[in-house]
Amino acid sequence: MKILLLLILLDIFELTSLPAQDANAKFSQNDLHILEERSIIRGYYKDVASASNGAVIQSARANIFARPSIDNSPLRNSLYFSDAFAPGHVYTALHQSLVVEFIQAYEINKIRFWMLDVDARVTSMQIYIVGSDRLTETMILDDFVQPGVHTLQFPDQLVSKVRFYNYGGNTINSFLSLIKIQAYYAF
């Protein structure tokens, strides 16, 4: 009974302080909320240029899709093909663009793209990222690109579109050929 009375008196006069619920946590609730907001604007750190995440090829009517009998979109999720010698891809004529538009503006800092690599063609191209206002373009690549997979790292930016511009064709013909495109935030 004396112990119960002592506990009641301690509680009434607030003589003891209990530790906070998150005293041993590395992040406070506010920090977790900020991290959650950043995760959303960064597309949950996934590929935001994927068709399953709502991205579309804005310039699809001006582009040519090779191998129409298979999934030939550069925004597809699969990376492997039934016919490895002629994978499905999209190509763009000289001085035309392939524009990938996201469902919203995302904060990204890395773009990965796979150029057609069935031969040794070298492509002259430019890559632009379009800001959240959907008007401001920033060039992130102006170069000759070898066949294969390439990764571009740039400062963190809010991006609503990525534009691949066929500046000078390639060493075999006048087209820019892309197999796969990815855009995401990487640490």
* Structural class by secondary-structure content: mainly beta
Q: What does the radius of gyration come to?
A: 25 Å
Distance between the termini: 59 Å
Helix and strand sequence: HHEEEEEEEE
CATH fold category name: Jelly Rolls
> Mean pLDDT across all residues, rounded?
88
Number of domains: 1
CATH homology superfamily: Galactose-binding domain-like
Number of helices: 2
DSSP strand (E) fraction?
35-45%
Keywords: Signal
Signal peptide: 1-20
Report on the architecture of this protein.
- The protein has 187 residues and is mainly beta.
- The protein has a single domain (45-78, 87-184), classed as Jelly Rolls, CATH 2.60.120.260.
- Helices cover 13% and strands 40% of the residues.
- The protein has two helices and eight strands.
- The radius of gyration is 25 Å and the shape is elongated.
- The protein starts with a helix and ends with a strand.
- The mean pLDDT is 88.
